[in-house]
Amino acid sequence: MNRPISGLYAVTPDMTDSTVLIGKVEAALRGGASVVQYRSKGGDDSRRQEQAGGIARLCRDCNAIFIVNDSVDLVRAVDADGVHLGRDDVDIAAARAALGSEKLIGVSCYNDMDRARSAQSQGADYVAFGSFFPSATKPLALRAGVDLLRIAASQISLPIVAIGGINEDNAAGLIAAGADAVAVVSALFEAPDIEVQARRFARLFQIPVNS
């Protein structure tokens, strides 16, 4: 079984240039990203498979977890470590039937504890809450309060991922409230030095944070 989700969870930006994207992911991994999620909502299947395959190889070399957003088929094609499912994707049972017990299944729970409890009961491997802050990636996303992390940490036995508008300044409060991982897009991949920025995020998980 794959190890639990924790630490810096890097979510890729949507890019057409595969070489540039893979270079950015490589920098994030050098800086200490422990999880990478490939998220691509557009483009042709061949490019998505090229990008996901390249990132999968990098993650294996760096002993990092590789998650694919939405697509069970792409997980299987590149032998990713798991899939992340949103409200409009296949359900957990269908994903598990397709992928087997060894793959990770993560579920977006937005600001909904009932959805998180249901995901846990259906066999998810981790849950994600957010958006905690305004997000350029998803400006219309539902907002979640930091207290939700405290509630989730006391009621959910799965790893908890926080997402949405997270940067180096606000991540520590989410970790203190119960987030096992922080999922970051813009604040990581738009940084002038991605490796240095990843190291700063990763360091937050090595320093005790008072709640």
Textual characterization of the structure:
It is a single chain. The chain has 211 residues and is α/β, with parallel strands linked by helices. The protein has a single domain (7-204), classed as TIM Barrel. It has helices at residues 18-31, 45-61, 72-78, 92-99, 113-121, 146-155, 171-177, 186-189, 194-204; strands at residues 7-11, 35-38, 65-69, 82-85, 104-110, 126-129, 160-163, 181-184. The chain has an eight-stranded parallel barrel with strand order 1-2-3-4-5-6-7-8, surrounded by eight helices. Helix 7 (171-177) links the parallel strand 7 (160-163) and strand 8 (181-184). Helix 1 (18-31) packs parallel to helix 2 and helix 1 packs parallel to helix 9 (194-204).
Could you give a short description of this structure?
The chain contains 9 helices and 8 strands. With 211 residues, the protein is an alpha/beta fold.
Biggest β-sheet: strands ordered side by side in the sheet: 1-2-3-4-5-6-7-8
Instruction: Give the name of the CATH architecture.
Output: Alpha-Beta Barrel
Gyration radius, in Å: 16 Å
User: Which CATH first-tier class would you pick?
Assistant: Alpha Beta
* Beta-strand residue percentage: 15-25%
User: Strand pairing plus helix content: what structural class?
Assistant: alpha/beta
Shape: globular
Query: Mean pLDDT, as a whole number?
Result: 94
Question: How many runs of DSSP E, i.e. beta strands?
Answer: 8
Low-confidence stretches: none
Q: Which bin fits the share of residues in helices?
A: 40-55%
Tell me the CATH superfamily: Aldolase class I
- Tell me about the largest β-sheet: 8 strands, parallel, barrel
- Please count the helical segments: 9
Beginning-to-end CA distance, first to last residue: 31 Å
Task: State the order of secondary-structure elements, H for helix, E for strand.
Answer: EHEHEHEHEHEHEHEHH
- How many domains? The number is 1
CATH topology: TIM Barrel
